[in-house]
Amino acid sequence: MKDFANSLKSNTKFLIFGCGFSGNFFAKTVRKFGYKALTSSRSEKQDQHSFVFNSTNGKVPNDEIFDGTTHVLSCIPPGENGKDPVLEILKSKLKSLSLEWIGYLSTTGVYGNTNGDWVSEIDKPNPFQKRSHIRLNCETEWIESGLPVQIFRLPGIYGPGRSTFDAIRNQKIRVISKKNQVFSRIHVADITNAIIHLLRNKDSLKFHQIINIADDKPCSQLEVIQYCYDLLGLKMPKPILFDEAKKELSPIAQSFWTENRRVSNKLLCETLGYQLIYKDYKIGLKNCFLDSHKK
Ligand SMILES: NC(=O)c1ccc[n+]([C@@H]2O[C@H](COP(=O)([O-])OP(=O)(O)OC[C@H]3O[C@@H](n4cnc5c(N)ncnc54)[C@H](OP(=O)(O)O)[C@@H]3O)[C@@H](O)[C@H]2O)c1
To answer: What SS3 state is found at 295?
Structure first.
């Protein structure tokens, strides 16, 4: 990955919409390789790399922000009106630029429920939740925009500062058991590194417009929670059966348990040759654990 510093043109400039968990990680990483990367937030930040963009109140970046932009990454979820915030406000602006590449972070929720079966990019999306229908519409709008977009479908994102450890520490953990239920996940560093791998090898790899970024080992949430308690040297509370626990879950939390799928990463990791840093939750959570002890 070291040669990424020299693999894009020296005038490369990234505009990253949404400086949340994934956007911020991506921006910090590409800056370490010497590239310029500006990030959006909805409110003013004391950060020379930050600009304001808020699709709901007309806070739109000025032309200078866009000057010289070659690459865009959108990490903003659909708005409450169901529209993609970036396309809704900035589509014509983006079309007026000479962009080489746009990445859009989407979700594997568009695949819907497969009762635990594997899903890959060749499977037809079959959204079940309303928010996943909306997401699929946003993906379609990006594809139909004529912009050079590549869509990354992501399962649950975790990493230092946002993992099961944090849920345990903040007493937000719910130890729930549901037979045969699995979830897929991805470490935030692998989202960034997978995208870097694709950009770095853009000329030699066949272009795929939709790519899943997931780790190798979908598994039950209980397995992950047990592993964290073990690393912390604590006793895990007794699991509550989902049917009992659901009465107290918010509708959104309940909705996550209505879908059961294993997300395949074969396109990314076999066809396109990306090597995961964190192949499974054990390696990834160890990283989160060690990171929290550094502070
Ligand atoms: N979290 C997951 O487990 C997960 C799983 C699969 C897919 N995804 C999707 O992957 C993408 C990145 O996820 P993430 O968890 O890294 O995101 P995140 O931390 O929630 O950050 C989202 C960003 O979007 C910005 N934003 C939200 N609404 C906006 C609007 N109307 N106008 C302008 N900016 C707006 C936020 O701005 P502020 O910084 O000002 O708040 C924030 O920077 C999202 O689309 C998310 O839905 C997430």
So the answer is: coil
Question: How many domains are there within the chain?
Answer: 1
Report whether residue 221 contacts ligand 1, using a CB cutoff of 6 Å.
Answer: no
What are phi and psi for residue 192, nearest 5 degrees? -60, -50
User: Is 22 near ligand 1, meaning CB less than 6 Å away?
Assistant: yes
By most ligand atoms within 8 Å of CB, the mutation choice from 38, 53, 75 for ligand 1 is: 75
**Residue in the block written with tokens 């995208």:** 195
Extract the tokens encoding 199: 């950009």
Q: Kindly report the CATH number assigned to the domain that includes residue 290.
A: 3.40.50.720
Q: What SS3 state is found at 119?
A: strand
- Residue 90, domain extent: 4-294
Atom of ligand 1 nearest to the CA of 43: 40
Output the residue whose Cα is nearest ligand 1's atom 17.
20
What does pTM read for this prediction?
Answer: 0.98
Count of Cβ atoms closer than 10 Å to residue 220 Cβ: 16
Whole-number Å distance between alpha carbons of 197 and 153: 16
Indicate if the alpha-carbon torsion angle 166, 169, 170, 174 is positive or negative. positive
* Distance from the alpha carbon of residue 263 to the mean position of ligand 1, in angstroms: 21
pLDDT, tens only, 41-98: 999 999 999 999 999 998 999 999 999 999 999 999 999 999 999 999 999 999 999 9
Cβ of 55 closer than 6 Å to ligand 1, yes or no, is: yes
- Minimal CA–CA distance to 89: which of 58, 118, 64? 58
Residue in the block written with tokens 């348990």: 257
Contact of 164 with 228, CB cutoff 8 Å:
yes
* Nearest-angstrom CA–CA distance, 123 and 247: 33
CA of 16 from ligand 1 middle (Å) equals 11
